[in-house]
Amino acid sequence: MPSxxxxxxxxxxxxxxxxxxxxxxxxxxxxxxxxxxxxxxxxHRADRWNPKIAxxxxxxxxxxxxxxxxxxxxxxxxxxxxxxxxASLGQTILFVGTKPQAQEVIKKVSGMxxxxxxxxxxxxxxxxxxxxIKKSVEKLAKMKxxxxxxEYKQFTKREQLLLDREISKLERIFGGIAGLTKLPxxxxxxxxxxxxxxxxxxxxxxxPIVAIVDSNADPNLVDFPIPAxxxxxxxxxxxxxxxxxxxxxxxxxxxxxxxxxxxx
Length: 264
Known about the structure:
Layout: H1 6-19, H2 27-37, E1 42-45, E2 57-61, E3 64-67, H3 69-88, E4 93-96, H4 100-113, E5 117-118, H5 130-148, H6 157-174, E6 186-190, H7 196-204, E7 209-213, E8 224-227, H8 233-263
Parallel strand pairs: 4-5, 4-6, 6-7, 7-8
Antiparallel strand pairs: 1-3, 2-3
Helix pairs in contact: 1-2, 3-8, 4-8, 5-6
């Protein structure tokens, strides 16, 4: 680790040890160490910050804002509990991350927990014009089902090619939300500034948001902010994987509950 950040590491861990309960003192420093290792503590240059993020900052190192990782950990824990609970209730969680650092992990984690995702570009009107978007999603599902059933074999090769192209086009736009039958119950977003259209659409319909919020963004725009570096692939992967684990735990809880009800 660069020498200028060694003092930050020591202070983070020391602060956590003295401010947490005795039973948690061993676990919390480990999480802080993991967040440090993936670079979650780095914000943007101090001259590019959003003043509304001030309460989540630790200080400045070489002109770069450094997050207070104890606060990041606290808010991450809150977000994990929220997603775990919603997953246990069978709710739908939509992952949104269109920046290159987020695309791969968003697709992977959402696939692991069977949740919809958007990793190319936000679909304008997804929330505010859902009835129209839903028709396109249903059209994609219908066409794929018909093709798999061999119903397109009756058409000429050229007609089949045109149908395949249409499916591919719809897949590129709506593929990640192909199984979405209603508006999601909550969003998980990487980079609030980049996904501002999604944020505003969700707020308009009172859909809650969990988001990684960097030092150049307004944490007040989302319900469950996670103050952290949203430009580091490792940091984004670490946080999104943690969120995915919480969702998976909630789903297991739902499965056990359903099994118990059926047995009774």
